[in-house]
Amino acid sequence: MQIQFIASVSLISASAHPGATRGLLTRAFGLPLEAGSGDPDYVFSERIEGSKHFGVWPLTQAAEACFGVGEWPRDLPVPQVSVEFEVASEQAVADAEQELRAQGIRLLHPTRKEPWGQTVCRLLSAEGAILGVSFAPWLHGAKKT
Length: 145
Fold this sequence. Notes:
The chain is of the alpha+beta class. The protein has three helices and eight strands. It has a domain of 93 residues: 2,3-Dihydroxybiphenyl 1,2-Dioxygenase, domain 1 (Roll). An eight-stranded mixed sheet has the order 2-3-4-1-5-8-7-6, sandwiched between helices. The model has no long low-confidence stretch (mean pLDDT 91).
């Protein structure tokens, strides 16, 4: 697996008040976070120096992305952060999935293309971090979908 860079870091918020973390990050740290298109609960920025994408991801949305339901499974640690590592192509994500499986690593979900155009597979670390292997075409010069 050839990781090119860290594509995304997102704090995962299980708070009943997701705006609290957004307020902290915008007021105390001055981060330019904005709501996602059509989704006021997911806030992010692609304008923070040294970061491709930084976000605050509601736990319900992380559960939906990983399992297709809005609730995190009770038998898994509740994640606090998501880090996605970028590779060179969609095929490289699929190859990484096979490499991880060959090492006996359990994935949260297999390689798939998200509605926004990113190809990703994800796993959960022992610390409860969601780790993804990702290909986001817009990070390689293609137009974002």
